[in-house]
Write a structure and sequence with these properties.
344 residues; alpha+beta; Enolase-like, domain 1; Beta-Lactamase; three-stranded antiparallel sheet; 11 strands
């Protein structure tokens, strides 16, 4: 019996993964013999499959059944796919045309990107709002709610809006708030939190307290990894055979409804690769063990970034998911560069 992970065994593993992705049915040695010209006997294929099973690449759901891939098998398959694989040209044209037909508004672009990716891969897709490396103050407003209470409205770079209630120890009118607003906007518009702190300005105690609140809100914003997320295609994902069972479907629904689910998905996952694939048990979060993620980044290096990705069962069409995420990353980066006045 041949020893080691030979090229033929690798080819058989990739056949099993591709067949299972396409059919969601265990793959038998007879299927491989009949549909693929490997130049070997059925017995040799069975021996090779026994090796793959022993080494943890595949498993049999039932003794008499064919084989299905395990996480190790999917990982080997994904590593054989070029991360630079491209979508068919007709689909690239369709994506570009779709963006030409919507208004030049970042929020509309992101919703469209999530919807297009979801339809192309037949699973859930996510896109986060782009986030600046360091936010800058565009302007602030102070709105009187009561003689001792005002609402601080902070508009930051990338059209991010933050609000906070500010109590006062002395009565304060809207006219007084307007004077403070104009002064602080003149002093701090266009600055980062560190620049606001470093700027020497003559302010009274109330103005300083408001400035401190502004700086605190900006620092909190800078500490966030990603912004709001657009999620599309959850129904498509839950329609996959893997989620027909009530328990698995409920687990996914509970995950998506959790406020911090995106943090679980993206935390420390995105590295320097153009597209990164995280398969089943490779996920750090126990609630993601049944899922695979194909993740990418878009934006302008060192200035602004966002995350995009596809979420689905481990039996995912990885070639299509990788090519879709990679191309959509390029499209969103191009559009964002235009909005920010960067060279393209």
């Amino acid at each position: 019996m041949t020893s080691g992970f030979t090229p033929r065994r690798k080819a058989i593993l990739n056949i099993i993964v591709a067949e299972y992705i396409a059919t969601a049915m265990p793959v038998a040695s007879e299927t491989i013999l009949r549909n693929y010209k490997l130049g070997v006997s059925s017995a040799t294929i069975r021996n090779d499959m026994a090796y793959l099973e022993k080494e943890g690449y595949i498993a049999k759901p039932h003794t008499s059944a064919g084989s299905i891939p395990l996480a190790k098998g999917y990982r080997n398959y994904v590593e054989s796919i070029s991360k630079d694989i491209e979508l068919p040209m007709e689909e690239q044209y369709h994506i570009r045309d779709s963006f030409h037909n919507v208004e030049e508004e970042v929020e509309r672009w992101l919703k469209l990107a999530a919807a297009l990716m979801s339809r192309l891969v037949g699973n859930a897709a996510l896109v986060t709002f782009p986030k600046a490396k360091q936010c800058r103050l565009k302007h602030l407003e102070l709105v009187s709610l009561h003689e001792y209470l005002a609402l601080l409205i902070l508009v930051l770079s990338e059209t991010v809006l933050k609000q906070q209630l500010l109590p006062f120890s002395q009565p304060i009118t809207q006219e007084q708030l307007n004077i403070i607003t104009n002064k602080l906007n003149t002093n701090y518009a266009g600055l980062t939190s560190s620049q606001v702190l470093a700027k020497k300005s003559t302010v009274n105690s109330e103005e300083q307290r408001i400035t401190d609140s502004v700086v605190d809100m900006m620092i909190t914003e800078d500490e966030l990894e990603y912004h709001a997320t657009y999620l599309e295609g959850l129904r498509l994902m839950l329609g996959q055979p893997e989620f027909m069972g009530k328990d698995r479907m409920l687990r996914v629904m509970e995950l998506m409804e959790a406020r911090d689910w995106l943090k679980s998905v993206l935390h420390n996952q995105l590295e320097n690769e153009r597209v990164q694939v995280v398969i089943g048990e490779e996920n750090r979060d126990e609630s993601l063990k049944d899922l695979s993620l194909v993740l990418g980044r878009y934006g302008i290096p060192q200035k602004v970034k966002g995350a995009i990705g596809v979420i689905g069962p481990t039996r995912m069409d990885y070639r299509r998911a990788i090519s879709t995420v990679g191309y959509m990353s390029d499209v969103l980066s191009y559009l964002l560069a235009g909005v920010c006045g960067e060279e393209q």
